[in-house]
Amino acid sequence: MSWKCTACGLFLLAVATAAGQVASHAPTVFTQKPASYEDGLAPMTPTDKPVAHVNGTVLTEADLVREEYAIFPYARQHNGIPKELAPQIRDGAMKMMIFEELVYQEALRRKMIVPPARMQQAETDFQKTFANPEDFNAFMEDEFRGSRQLLEEKIRRSLLIDALLKVEVQSRSLVSAGEVRAFYDKNPERFHIPESYIFQTITVLVPGKATAEQVREARERAEKELPQARATKTNDGFGLLAEKISDDDYRVMEGQHQSTPADQLPPQVVSVLAKMKVGDVSDVVEVGQAFTILRLNAHTPAGEERFDDVKAQLTKQLEQSKTNQLRAALDQRLRQSARIEEP
């Protein structure tokens, strides 16, 4: 139907957002070595080839691939990163990798240390991510040539990054209950609940460029199905009928339309739904190139979300926003005195 709402591009938007932030994930220690990419995926096999220098420290292709896999964890399942996503993921990974190196170097400059007990716990936790000792030993040989010292250096590096970020970002990103309440009061439009409907449909579609006769036949067919629709007493009953006789794509979901704001529906549909009670089945309604029967399952009037209902989620959102700002500010501050070279 012409008014069907579809969720398009959400995944790409999420990837673009992640790539545009600076180190929005936990510091990367290491991952198991990524597999080579197949046809249709970004052609990248991790090597020791330098991709950046940060105050003289060499960052390699293998380091970059680890960051890419941190951004796009599904890469291992798909044996690589799709080519259409590769440029923005690589850009985001490069920013994260350089940021983490700058943070690590700053932690060393401040002479921060990791307590031995914390080191031991981190190593134990890492070993537990492997199914068995054989897998862990194979990883050690492949990644560190069996060197426990190299493993410890990687763990210490990650923990130092985490420690400095706790000081500079995490501890400063907390927001008080008063700040949360003030934001709620100053932004009432953010918490407005639009009028919305949840409903089901049984639809008879009219062919494109239909003749008057074809339009009449479609209406007659819909009218013929109306008594069956009204005879159903439940959502499931209406849904099973929709599966059998409806023409539109919603039939595979038993005619179910999720909560939809009234302003996103055709006026004639809203006009009909507004007069119905939950559980009612409408007359045949003409909507564009279709004749449809509506069943109202829920109606949410326009209103405002209560502060107590949104407080927890709003607190998380405000703290995440503050975290991103603090990370970006830290990145900018560290870069001012850094020597960074990228090919």
Task: Summarize, please.
The chain is α+β, with helices and mostly antiparallel strands and 343 residues long.
What would your notes on this structure say?
It is a single chain. With 343 residues, the chain is α+β, with helices and mostly antiparallel strands. It folds into 2 domains: 10-175 and 318-341, Triger factor/SurA peptide-binding fold; 195-301, Chitinase A, domain 3. Helix content is 49%, strand content 14%. It contains 11 helices and 9 strands. A hairpin with a 3-residue loop joins strand 6 and strand 7. Helix 3 crosses helix 6 (148-168) and helix 7 crosses helix 11. The chain starts with 9 loop residues before the first helix and ends with a strand.
Largest sheet: 4 strands, antiparallel
The helix/strand class is alpha+beta
For the record, the CATH architecture of the largest domain stands as Orthogonal Bundle
How far apart, in Å, are the first and last alpha carbons?
Answer: 51 Å
List keywords for this structure.
343 residues; alpha+beta; Triger factor/SurA peptide-binding fold; Chitinase A, domain 3; 2 domains; 11 helices; elongated; disordered N terminus
